[in-house]
Each structure stands twice: as C-alpha cells, then as structure tokens.
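Q: Hi! First time doing this. I have a protein sequence and I read that you can turn it into a structure. Is that right? Here it is:
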Amino acid sequence: MQRKNAGSRARDNRGTTAIVGATAVSVFAVLAFQAIGSRQLGPDYFAPIAVLWTLMFLLHTVLLLPAEQHLTRALVVTGTLSQIAKVRREMLLAFSAALLIGVVFTATTLDRFFDGSPAYIAFAALIVVNRSIMVTGRGLLAGHRRFVAYGASIGLESLGLLVGGVAVALMDGGALAFGVVIALAPLATLLARPFGGRTRAEGHHLFDAQPGTFLAWLIFSTGASQLIIAGGPIAISFVGGDAVAVSIYFTSFALLRGPLTSAYNLVARVLPDFTELAHSNDPNQLWSWATRIVLGGLIAAGVGAVGAGLLLRPIVETIYGAGFAPPVLAAILGGAGVGLGLGALFATQVYSAAGLGAHLAFGWTCGLVAALMVLVLVGMDPVNRVALAFVVGEGVGLLVLGVVLPQRQKAARLAADSLA
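A: Yes, that's right. Below is the predicted 3D structure, encoded as structure tokens:
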C-alpha cells in the first residue's frame, strides 16, 4: 500500500471528522423529520410515507450506493475518470434499473400502499433521479479523497430534509407534501460542489478492468442484504400485518437502524483504504480484518439487544407517540440485529475492495434464505416474526462473510504457498 505523507494523513483525518460530524447531524435530522411526519399524520396516514421511505432506502442501498462504491473503487486504483468509461456506463444501467423498479412498484401498489394517489409515482421517479445525481457526486468526492466535502454533502441533504419537514408542518401539509420533501432533499448536496473544485489523482494505476459482472454481483449482494435490513414494513403487510403494524415496525426499526444507516456514510472513508490494502504487496492485511469485524459485530449485538430492550419503547413513545411502541421482544431482536448488521456491513467492504463479487453474493444469499425461512416457518405475530427474520438474516450473513469464507481464503492461500 502506498505510504501516505503527513499532509495526506492530516487531510484524511479532517475528512473523517467531517463525515462523523455530518452523520450525527443527519441522524438528528432524519429522526426529527420522521417524528414531525408521524405526529402530524398519525399511524394510519403515515403508512404511505413509511413505504415511500422504505422504497427510497432500498433503491438507494441496493442499486445507487453500489454504483457510488464502484466509482469510488475505480478512482482509487486509477486516479482518473478517463480510464473508467465502462464504469460510468454500468452506473447508468444501475440508475435506469432503479428508475424502472421504483416507478413500476409504485404504480402497481398504489391502492395497497399509497392510498391510490398517482402522485407517488412521480415521487418515486424524482427520488431515483435526484439520488442518482447525489451518489455520482459522492463517488467522485470519495474516490478523490475529498472527505470534507463528502461530509458536507451528508449534512446538506439531511438539513434539506429537516427544513422541508418543518415547513410542511408549519403549513399543516399532508402526506403528499412530505413526499415532495423526500424527493427533493438530495439536490441540496449540490451545494457541496461535488462536480467541481480541486480533485486529486492519487490512484495506483492498477485498475484491472473489472468485468461488468462485478457491479452486477455487488448489486445482487446489496439487494439481498437490504431486503433483510429494510424490507420489514413490506414484509409485515405480506405476513398479515395491518397499516398500524407497518407504521409501528417502520418507526421503531428506523430508529434502531440509526447506527447502521449512519455507518453507510463511513463506508466512503473505509473503502478507499481497504482497496489500497487489496492492491498492496501483502493482501493478507485486508483479510486480517475479518476476525476483528466479526468480534466487533457480536459485541455490538449484545449491547444492542440489552439497550433496545430497555430503552426502545420509551424512546419511540416520546418521539413518535404511544401508538407506535413496538413489542419488547421485537425491540430486543432488532437491537441485536443492528449490531450484527454493523459487523456485516464492514465485512462486506472487504469483498468489495478485493473485487470478490461472487463471494459476497454467496454470503448474503445465505442470509436472505435464512431470513425467508423464518418468515415462512415461524408462527408469531407479524412484528415479532419480521424482527426475528431480521436478526437471523444478519447473523448468518456476518458468519458466512466474516468466518466461513475467510477460512476458505486462508486454506486456499496456504495450499498455493505449499505448491510454490
């Protein structure tokens, strides 16, 4: 790995501080926005916004965020846009798929989730277009290690969301007005000038022309993992839950997922360094992180289970209202699942950095299958059943990615060394 000078380290440290600080602002802004919306609309009328937010989260994490990470990784190992025209074409395909899926899903479920209002189709389209612009800019910022500007983009988006939510509340707006805010808030990131300003070409020029299947594997893997993490409100409906159950699960788990959602911002800081390790003379340094990541995830799961079991219900009642309080068992399961999810998220970056898309897909397929088996086979009320599926899926994903596959990698390396 290329040794950084003192100036580069100081610049990266400032960037890390900016990302962490902006993430804290984002957590507050998102919770405030959801609290404003849920209190103004109530559990029944807030359900369309809950599903719209879930759709946005899934499209962003499944299709848009992998495109951002693909661009970041390519820039780290080339240092220039001129050599990655193929990456840009692949990103455009991902954005187009997100637009198609968002519009089709919304159009075909208007009566089920969106009170029959066609305005939500336009919201879905705007969300994809505006967030595609946002993630492209963020990919450029992270790839050129402009981490301070990356942090600014996080803060600007969240503040745009909060300001819009307050404005809607002051005007006594309804669900449609909150939908407009969700769709337009990503454009606030343009104030961070992601497409301008000074860039730095510090790549290693080792870009190995990753096949087009790499982004496809990354999207598939992220899709499986995000169905486990964020598909709960939709799963609630399909296992017999009503609109109130959807709202309860959404608000409670949106609050629980705060640390996990915040950690997505830190991926932009970790992925460049992991990518450099993957291209170093000793890639074993990268795989040595696997054990530490699993241990950290297990510790976080224990802390999360205890903390959520004790505190989630009173916090939810304070922020959203008594009608949104989840069952205690769901709270405990959700807290544990978030801790495991934090470990799995950073384990995922090891495979992204190394370009092992198929391995990543295998790990998250195992997690998703385990979660679906819980939904089908376990007889519990909808909220508890989906919460159990969440923790099982995250646990299996973490163990496969952090223990099973790294052990296979180690055995393969030992066998290769013995033959050398």
